[in-house]
Amino acid sequence: MVLNNEQIKSIAANCLDVRTRENGRAQVLRFTDKQTELYRNSNFIPHPLCAPCACFDFTYNGEIIAFEFDITAVTSRKFLSFDLYDGEVMVHSLYTYADSEGQRQFFYKFSDKRTRRVRLFLPYSCGVEIWNFTLDDGATFTPTSTDGRLKMLFLGDSITHGYDSHYTSMTYAATVARHYDAVCLNHGVGGYVFKAESLDAELPFTPDVITVAYGTNDWGRYGMDEDKYRAAADAFFDKLCTIYPSARIFGILPVWRADEDRRPERMPFTRVYEILRECYASHGVECIDGEKAVPQMRAFYSDGLHPNTIGQHVYGLHVIEALEKAGIKKNG
To answer: What is the pTM assigned to this prediction?
Structure first.
C-alpha cells in the first residue's frame, strides 16, 4: 500500500508539520513560517529546510518499507543518510550523496513479519521531499503515541544541527532524544549565533527540557569585543527564559576547537567559557561543560571544529550523563 500525505503526516515525529509541495510530494518541516522567513532573510535558508532528529515513528507488522525522495535544499555537507531502527537497534542506513550520483530510493525488507516499533530518521544535511511511501499490502501501522513522553528542544549551531556525523541518528541531539525516548525539536542551524529574534514565542511546542549550545560562532563574530558577546547571549537568554518559564534550561559550553589558541584577533577562548558561565548563572540556566564533552583529539573531529560520527555520539553520552545527574528522567 502507498501512504497518502495525511498518513505520512500521521507517523512523522520530532517536527512541526508535513506539508504537501506543489508537485504533490511530502516535506517535513521543523520551524515556524516566521522562523523560516528570518533565516531566509539572513541567508541561512538551506539549513531550516533540513530536518535533524525528525523521523517516521510507528508500530508496523509488515516487512517492506520503501519510498522515493529528492533533494530540496543542500547545505555544505553533500552526504546524507536515512537511518532505520527496529526497536532500539539501527538495522539499516541508506548513506548516499546529494549530487547527481546519489541514490533516490529507499528500500528495506525485514527478515520476518512481526509487530515492531519502527523509526526512520531523516537526513540532517539536506532537505528532502518524499513520495510513494510504501508498506506491505494488508499490513497495519499505528503512529507512536506522544502521551507522557519527555519533550526536549535543542538550540544551537552546526554541531547541534548534526555536523559531521555520517549517521543522522547518531548526532548528539538524536542520541540524547533516543536515550530519553523524547518528543523533540532540533532547532540547530549551521553557522548560527545567539540571536533572540530566532526564538518564536508562538512555537506550537512546549518543552520540558531545553539545551542551548551556541557560542563558538559568536567568538568569531565578536572578536575581542566581550561586551557585545555578553549582550547577545544575555538578550537570548532573557527571551528564552521569558517564553519558557517552566522548562529546565541547560547551557552547553562550546566544545574544544583546534584553532582556539591561534586566533590573536579574538578574545582568549577561556574568556568565552567564563562569560557563558556567568550568563548561565545569572539566568538560572544549568551548565553542561561542553569543553569536556568530546576528547580534544583530531580523531574525534572532521576538521578540528565539528565532531565526526564518534565525536557526536560521545558528545551525546556526555550530555545524557549531565542531564541524568541533574535529575532528568525518561517520560518526564
So the answer is: 0.97
101 lies in the same domain as 239: no
What phi and psi values does residue 323 have, to the nearest 5 degrees?
-65, -40
Amino acid at 60: Y
Residues 98 and 165 placed together within one structural domain of the fold = no
153 has which bridge partners?
Answer: 185, 210
- Angle among Cα 8, 9, 11 to the nearest 5 degrees reads 70
> Are residues 172 and 126 both part of a single domain?
no
Q: Find the mean pLDDT for residues 173-196.
A: 98
3-state secondary structure of 162: coil
Q: Is residue 319 part of a domain?
A: yes
Task: Tell me, yes or no, whether 294 and 212 share the same domain.
Answer: yes
Are residue 158 and residue 132 in the same domain, yes or no? no
Query: Above 60 in pLDDT, residue 332?
Result: no
Separation CA 215–CA 94 (nearest Å)? 33
Task: Kindly tell me the burial class for residue 301, based on how many C-beta atoms sit within 10 Å of its own C-beta (0-12, 13-18, 19 or more).
Answer: buried
Same domain, 175 and 241: yes
DSSP H helices in 52-202: 158-161, 172-180
Counting beta carbons within 10 angstroms of the beta carbon of residue 271, is it exposed (0 to 12), middle (13 to 18) or buried (19 or more)? Answer: middle
